[in-house]
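**User:**
Make up any protein.

**Assistant:**
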Amino acid sequence: MGETITKRQRQAQVTKRILFDSAISLFKEKGYDSVTVEDIAQRAGTAKGSFYTYFNTKSDIIIEEFRTIDHFYAGWERNLRRYEGAIAKLAAFTRAQMRYVRDKVGLKTLKILYANNIVEPTTEKILIDNSRHLHTLVKEIIEEGQATGEIRTDVGADRLAQLFNRSFRAVFLDWAISNDGFDLVKEGVEFCGVMVLPCLAPRE
């Protein structure tokens, strides 16, 4: 019994991966709006019903792809040891995050993600999910800064991390609305230095 279930689970993982890869390939070839679930299933060599076994809508594909950003955060985290102090680490992280979204995620995918999280009431709200590695990473840096006196302690680290990440979603949203109308990295770094980091300073 256990062996049969394991084989089924393995096959399910393979099928889901084929559907995912097929969808991403089609999105890049034809554009997200031009791709249908039928197109994805046909490319994957499965029935349309198989798609709905693993994904509720085609936008779920985008959400899953967006989860790869957390892998970037986890991998980049080792770079933090190069920086002295929490403020320097937050500034460096912001620059890396802006570069990654601009160069790897891309404008089209970001627009789809934001639109999906806003329009679809039942979709997973990955953008504001505090269980993501993004939140944990920022929270840990802030906790370090609070311990050394660099960062205010009148507000908890968890709440400060939530507000920190929320503020940068505004930058990403502006970039999407402007249709790449400004340099995301330059504007993001300036926003961090002028608006965000000063707000984390200890209260007098």
In short: The domain at 2-55 is CATH 1.10.10.60 (Arc Repressor Mutant, subunit A).
